[in-house]
Amino acid sequence: MQVSYFWIGLMVILLLLDLWVLNSVWRSDNSTGSKAGWTALVAVLPFAGLAIWAIAGPRGITKGPSSPEHSKG
Predict the structure, then answer these.
(1) What are phi and psi of 13, to 5 degrees?
(2) Where along the chain do its domains lie?
(3) Residue limits of the Cardiolipin synthase N-terminal domain (predicted)?
(4) Looking at the predicted structure, is the pLDDT value of residue 30 above 60?
C-alpha cells in the first residue's frame, strides 16, 4: 500500500497543531495536574484532543518577558 503525499502532509499539519496546543497548555495559568491531563489527552487522541482543546481548553499565558530588554520591538 502506497501512502500519498496528501496523508503525509495532513499528519505533519496535525503534529504541528498538537505541538502548538501543548505549548499553549503548558504556558497557561492552570495547575500542573490539569496541564498533565491535557497533555495526556492530546498525546493519546491527537485529533480528538485537538478538537476538545479548541472547545474547552485552557487559555492565557502566565508571564510575559522577564526584563525590559526582551520586550523591545
Answers:
(1) -65, -45
(2) 5-56
(3) 17-58
(4) yes
